[in-house]
Amino acid sequence: MPELSTDELSRYARHLILPEVGVEGQQKLKAARVLCVGTGGLGSPLLLYLAAAGIGTLGLVDFDVVDASNLQRQIIHSTADLGRKKLDSAAEKLVALNPTVRVVKHETRLTSANALEIFKDYDVVADGTDNFPTRYLVNDACVLSGKPNVYGSIFRFEGQASVFATEEGPCYRCLYPEPPPPGLVPSCAEGGVLGILPGLVGVIQATEVIKLILGKGSSLVGRLLLVDALEMRFREMKVSKDPECPVCGANRTVTRLIDYQQFCGIGPETKAGEKNGIPQISVRELKRRKDAGEEYFHLDVREPFEYQIAEIGGVLIPQNEVLGRLGEIPRDREVVVQCKGGGRSQKIAELLKAQGYERVVNLAGGILAWSEEIDAGVRKY
Amino acid sequence: MTIVIPTPLRVFTGGKDSLDVAAGTIAGALEELTTVYPDLRKHLFRAEGKMRAFVNIYLNDEDMRYLPEKEATAVKASDTLSIIPSIAGGVA
Questions:
Q1: Which of A25, A176, A365, B34 could bridge to B86 as Cys pair (CB 3.0-4.6 Å)?
Q2: pLDDT tens for residues A202-215?
Q3: Cα A361 to Cα A99, A247, A286, A333, distances in angstroms
């Protein structure tokens, strides 16, 4: 066990007097190596508290840069960090908070090719990711490498937390064997998220990480903690180990990392100009059709506040209302779906196709591309 | 019994977060729920009627999949049925 310096003894004084931590516990924390996948909403509070608590080695995985829309919840980054790499911004704050922490930066997207290699140098992995493919990847890599997966997830006002992939406990796939098909569950970018919520959930994850390292208390293994910030209600559900689980069950079929994009139904572009079976049209093509007076239905699936900032002649039906308002979308004409950048509209286009619409196309690049290439007078936001 | 509807599915219930139903079994309660809110059906069940794998149903704090009688489990008026879908968070 690493010795604690005089400085460390005073820094961790409030830990050292806790019987559950003490000098030995603090030494365990110092010896511990924790990997946090993602330095965003969940990663921010998680990492700050782990650094403050004296975790010896903190690994960070991220490839993103700080964007203005992150600052409402990603408290490890500041206004001055806009445009900087999240890794650099986060590492700087952690070292400023606690210079004794060794921060290891993994500037990459976590993939099936690199996950096991990155995980092998850590004792615990915290999942602060934001999408289904990476969550299944983190889980499977944790099971395969025998590292606990401290899980947290958020949506709007609701959060989930648990500890997966311990030796005896269930894994994420025991809870959810399959991801939802793309387009069925909106992301935070589309559904929004209360800025404080990842704070709540990330701190729960940090607590579980510390407890796992100390070996104290009752961990969330086998329990799914549900947080409803709007009602301020915490509930918990039992999570059982699925004997049939393809990753951690007795007759496992997944023995190495797979293609998680494919697993989550996010196909590669099938052919030129098509994505998941949806033809992509450019803003120039839309402009041509518009000018030629061609018949089509232009559906704008953004939120009303976005429509107020800028619009390009589409009929506004916010994405979450589309299913309930199919009657307003004609089936006898081609439907051109548009959003801000082309992501939400792609999902809605897939949804419409699944609802039996035969001619649905996605406007690639959305209103931003329109502003760039067709009409600079359309306000960007 | 009370059925608790999670945030992601409230777009199909006109924003309502719970529904009280009179039912004898879990299956009966879900039938009642999807009769009141038909749009929910395809989010909970596959075309052949099987529960979707990314939605879990809990009777109080027990996962329905591990109850001996599963959907046929008897329910009481004081029970709570929770729909817990998987959420990922983040950016598209």
A1: A176
A2: 999 999 999 999 99
A3: 53, 37, 11, 11
**So what's the ipTM on this one?**
0.91
Q: Which domains does chain A have, with CATH numbers?
A: 32-263 (3.40.50.720), 274-373 (3.40.250.10)
* Structural domain spans, chain B: 2-85
Fold of B2-85: Ubiquitin-like (UB roll) (3.10.20)
Residue A187 has pLDDT above 60, yes or no: no
One-letter identity of residue A86: K
Token look-up 């704008």 returns A300
How far is it between the farthest Cα atoms of chain A? 78
Q: For the CA atoms of chain B, what is the radius of gyration?
A: 13
Contact at 8 Å (CB) between A337 and A361?
yes
Q: What angle do CA A59, A62, A65 make, to 5 degrees?
A: 135
Q: Which amino acid appears at position B47 of this protein?
A: A
For A302, list phi and psi in degrees, rounded to 5.
Answer: -80, -175
Of A186, A239, A347, the CB nearest to B8: A186
* Closest B-chain CA to A191: B8
In this structure, chain B runs to a length of: 92
With an 8 Å Cβ cutoff, are B88 and A323 in contact? Answer: no
Nearest CA in chain A to B67: A240
Angle (CA) A196 A344 B89, round 5°? 30
Nearest C-alpha neighbor of B19 from the set B85, B83, B84:
B83
Catalytic residue annotation of A: 188, 339
Bigger pLDDT: B43 or A126? Answer: A126
Interface check A188 vs B, CB under 8 A: yes
Q: Is the pLDDT of residue A129 over 60?
A: yes
Average pLDDT over residues B28-38: 95
Give the C-alpha separation, A266 to A53, whole Å. Answer: 39
CA distance A243 to A350: 34
Please give the single-letter amino acid code of residue B1: M
